[in-house]
Amino acid sequence: MISTDLAPPPLAVAITGASGAIYGLELLRALRGLGRPAHLILSRAGRLTLDLETKGGVAEALALAGTVHAEDDLAAPLASGSFPLAGMVIAPCSIKTLSAVAMSFNHNLIVRAADVCLKEARKLVLMVRETPLHAGHLELMLKAARLGAVILPPMPAFYHHPTSLEDIVAQGVGKVLDQFGVAHQLFARWQGPQGMPA
After folding, report:
1. Strand order from edge to edge, sheet including 39-42
2. Spatial distance between the Cα atoms of 168 and 187, rounded to a whole number of angstroms
């Protein structure tokens, strides 16, 4: 039977244990607000970081997701290229997860789903969160980029004059959504010096 569903395929969002869990949480919130609730995978360390760094924690992330998959469920739909996805975001992406993605070490569903995106030529965005970076980190990012991943660390811009932490996070989330052509109004775009806030 041929599907007649014209809705855009969903995005997958993974939250790993690096600091910056707020980026994954706010991405889930933005996607739900845009009518595109995501498939969510939380690593065990990601669960800890969510509860440590955000007010809503794991409970809020689970409530914002459209579908939740267990980290160790390698039989989940996301593990197959036949399952339609618009792509995947790992936000934040720990160095451990970056290493596994770069080496195609598919030991859990996060890395397997990421590997599926790469092999199917779907967009994979890695919000790598670490500083400072040594040569090994940079080599892993280069390897992942050569495989097709987009390396998008949460690096704030200031031309839109953010006045809160929420403004900074929203700009990072907006940059992720831009990678997938998802329209949003999360931050003021550069309009030239005359078009920006004073």
Report:
1. 67-69, 39-42, 11-15, 87-93, 123-128, 150-151
2. 9
**pLDDT single digits (tens) 5-14:** 678 999 999 9
Encoded amino acid at 54, one letter: T
Question: Residue 66: which residues within 8 A CB-CB, separation 6 or more?
Answer: 10, 32, 37, 38, 39, 40
Read off the pLDDT band of 197 (50, 70, 90).
low
Q: Which amino acid is at 173?
A: V
Listed in order, strand segments (DSSP E) in 36-195 are 39-42, 67-69, 87-93, 123-128, 150-151
What's the burial of 5, exposed, middle or buried (CB within 10 Å: 0-12/13-18/19+)? exposed
